């Protein structure tokens, strides 16, 4: 029965992670959220960038965004090193954990499964953060190669196409960073698995609720939408007053 509960908890965690990822992507196509709202702001950023002669500020912003990804990627490596070390001392760690009043000590195989799941979550986060870093590097190259505002050889349509292309790369970088950051939330849920499978189920559900409220119902979303006029009635519709999160 205990091992059955472990499997149920793991399956529910995967449903929460993969299910919410797919849900948020689909809903971003027809309702306001942080993702599609920031996409529009990035498009405006690239259009304004093309009108500026001095683009040092734009390059500086991209550099800061890239460093954020580098910080989290480095943190992932440190965490991964700690998890791998703990895997080498499984018996010792289990003995220490058995002394805790709230600990639910499973079999060695289940304990190692928990550690491996946590390891996989941070490996996934590492790849997302490093891919985000690389795409922000692409954005820096695009800014460096952007046509100057006084170049008459570039038509308005050409400038708009360039802005859209640069914004698309920037949006992809932001999406990758967002997925990496979500992994930290899910990793915290996995940590509760070491307490009890039911705690793991509850934490996985809570993470989805928190992510949903912040993506679709947060005050930050309301503030971002209030500062911009949207033309499309469906995908750019104004959200209802959000709840605090």
Largest sheet: none
Fraction of helical residues: over 70%
- Principal-axes geometry comes out as elongated
Q: Find the count of extended strands (DSSP E, 2+ residues).
A: 0
Return Rg in Å: 22 Å
- The domain count comes to 1
Please characterize this protein's 3D structure.
The chain is mainly alpha-helical. It has one domain (33-226). The chain has helices at 2-27, 34-51, 56-88, 90-98, 108-144, 156-193, 197-216, 219-226. Helix 1 (2-27) packs antiparallel against helix 6, helix 1 runs parallel beside helix 7 (197-216) and helix 2 runs antiparallel to helix 6. The longest helix has 38 residues, at 156-193.
Topology of this protein?
Blueprint lengths: L1 H26 L6 H18 L4 H33 L1 H9 L9 H37 L11 H38 L3 H20 L2 H8 L19
């Amino acid at each position: 029965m205990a091992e059955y509960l472990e499997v149920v908890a793991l399956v529910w965690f995967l449903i929460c992670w993969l299910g919410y990822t797919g849900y948020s992507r689909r809903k971003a196509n027809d309702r306001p959220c942080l993702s599609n709202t920031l996409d529009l702001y990035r498009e405006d950023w690239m259009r304004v960038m093309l009108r500026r002669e001095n683009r040092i500020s734009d390059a500086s912003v991209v550099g800061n965004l890239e460093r954020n990804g580098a910080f989290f990627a480095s943190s992932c490596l440190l965490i991964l090193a700690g998890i791998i070390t703990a895997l080498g001392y499984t018996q010792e760690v289990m003995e220490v954990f058995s002394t805790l009043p709230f600990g639910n000590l499973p079999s060695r195989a289940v304990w190692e499964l928990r550690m491996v799941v946590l390891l996989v979550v941070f490996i996934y986060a590492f790849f997302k953060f490093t891919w985000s870093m690389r795409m922000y590097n692409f954005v820096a190259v695009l800014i460096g190669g952007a046509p100057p505002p006084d170049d008459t050889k570039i038509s308005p349509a050409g400038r708009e196409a360039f802005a859209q292309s640069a914004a698309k790369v920037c949006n992809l970088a932001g999406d990758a960073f967002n997925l990496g950051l979500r992994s930290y939330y899910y990793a915290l849920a996995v940590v509760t698995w070491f307490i009890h499978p039911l705690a793991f189920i509850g934490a996985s559900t809570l993470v989805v609720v928190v992510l949903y409220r912040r993506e679709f119902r947060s005050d930050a979303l309301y503030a971002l939408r209030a500062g911009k006029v949207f033309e499309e009635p469906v995908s750019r519709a104004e959200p209802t007053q959000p709840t605090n999160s």
